[in-house]
Design brief:
This protein is of the alpha+beta class. The chain has two domains: 4-301, 3-Layer(aba) Sandwich (Rossmann fold), CATH 3.40.50; 317-393, Immunoglobulin-like (Sandwich). Helix content is 18%, strand content 32%. It has helices spanning 66-71, 73-80, 106-109, 114-128, 143-154, 173-176, 214-224, 293-301, and strands at residues 4-6, 22-30, 33-41, 51-57, 83-87, 91-93, 96-98, 131-141, 161-165, 185-190, 229-230, 234-235, 246-253, 261-267, 317-319, 322-325, 332-337, 342-349, 354-355, 358-361, 364-366, 373-381, 386-393. The strands form four sheets. Strands 1, 2, 3, 4, 5, 8, 9, 10, 11, 12, 13 and 14 form a twelve-stranded mixed β-sheet that branches. It has a five-stranded antiparallel β-sheet with strand order 15-16-17-21-20, with no helix packed on it. The longest helix has 15 residues, at 114-128.
Length: 394
């Protein structure tokens, strides 16, 4: 992997502040393709301190440059000290690119594995930066938003919280989605979105799979998270009446693993990022300016760490009847079970390939010769129960 560190000076429209914050342009190889991404380093970034990371996915026909201006997430990064990461899709969608979100996009048709790419990207970020692996978040808009929904279904263990903007769930994914865990999530949807119909159905692009109504998608995640409380609706003050839209906030709380679901319903809102007007594209509909989505996304994300991290017990991970420690580790990994008798242990990388590691006994693995990165430990007990736990090798 060749690394090219650039101090990119761009106009405000690019989303990079005028004092020329540093962007790191980089790439990694996946499926024999060079996949590009940009990491925005906020002022005062220190590689000695674990730092949260927010991955931001552009919409269809976008790229890793345009999404910075479209979301203005770099400003939020600068003020709150997290890394903003902008990967780029690779499906052909002029003038930009598409994600393989499972709806038969051009990336899907080309056989692109974007789920695997995201896993490898996180692994690479862990190796290159001191990111806090318990505080990796992802959000996306439109095609990028649909991609977050696929990731929430297939690899929820990688993200502490997820944000979907200008999206829903497609009719195929909602039938197969089974995360097996609660997923903290925030949604932003406009009721007059001309590209993603609020009430579901066919998209303007005839090749992609139809979607369910936004309210149906919201209820799916509320049910998945087993949220017990629907709080009173909050009517956000209409401070900018000339934007011809208003915002209602629905909060679903008392969920498993404290995985709340927030839904910002933008009445008469269009296919835009709230808080960032795009007057040059009136066909996208109204942009609400009573809120700024990037700040609200971060405010939501900042509440959460990965559910499997045990507060107050450093370097230890607990999953039901299993305790794994030290985690992260640079040598041995101990698996303790208070109730289950362990039958077998297997270790996989994020691409699903099993790794050969020395098993000292049925509860102790030697990871000394393993490369640094993120792995999945598969535990099978003698009564047939199985558990998969994320392990970090330093």
């Amino acid at each position: 992997m060749v690394r090219n560190i650039l101090a990119i000076i761009l106009l405000t429209i690019t989303g990079i502040s005028a004092n020329a914050q540093q962007n790191v342009q980089d790439s990694l190889e996946h499926q024999n393709l060079q996949r590009q991404y940009i990491v925005h380093l906020p002022p005062g970034y220190n590689n000695n301190s674990p730092t949260p990371a927010v991955i931001v996915l552009h919409g269809g026909s976008g790229n890793y440059q345009s999404v910075q201006g479209f979301t203005q997430m770099n400003f939020v990064s600068n003020q709150n000290g997290f890394l903003a990461v902008y990967p780029q899709g690779i499906g052909n969608a002029p003038p930009g690119y598409s994600w393989a979100d499972g709806r038969n996009t051009t990336a899907d048709q080309a056989g692109i594995d974007d789920v695997g790419f995201m896993s490898k990207l996180i692994d690479t970020l862990y190796n290159d930066y001191n990111i806090d692996m318990n505080r990796v978040y992802i959000c996306g808009f439109s095609n990028g938003g649909f991609m977050t929904q696929r990731l929430a279904c297939e690899t929820p263990e990688l993200f502490a919280a997820i944000g979907g903007l200008g999206c829903s769930i497609d009719t195929n994914l909602i039938q197969t989605c089974n995360p097996n865990q609660a997923v903290p999530m925030v949604y932003f949807s406009g009721t007059a979105d001309p590209e993603v119909p609020y009430n579901g159905g066919a998209m303007n692009n005839p090749i992609v799979t139809p979607i369910v109504a936004v309210d149906t998608a919201v209820q799916f995640w509320v049910n998945n998270n087993n949220c017990q409380t629907a709080e009173p609706v909050v009517n956000i003050p209409d401070n900018v009446p000339e934007d011809s839209s208003t915002v209602e906030l629905y909060k679903y709380t008392d969920c498993d693993c404290d995985a709340d679901f927030y839904f910002y319903k933008i009445i008469n809102g269009g296919h835009t990022w709230p808080g960032v007007p795009v007057p040059q594209f009136p066909q996208l509909g109204n942009t609400n300016e009573d809120i700024h989505a990037s700040y609200l996304v971060w405010n939501f994300f900042s509440q959460f760490s990965l559910c499997d991290s045990v507060t107050g017990i450093p370097e230890q991970t607990s999953h039901d009847n299993f305790v794994v420690y030290p985690n992260p580790t640079n040598s041995t990994l101990f698996i303790q079970s208070s109730k289950e008798k362990i039958e077998s242990l297997k270790l996989y990388n994020l691409m699903g390939h099993e790794k050969n590691v020395k098993q000292i006994n049925h509860r102790l693995l030697d990871l000394t010769d393993l490369s640094s990165g993120i792995y999945l430990l598969y535990i099978k007990s003698t009564n047939g129960k199985t558990k998969t736990i994320r392990v970090i090798k330093e």
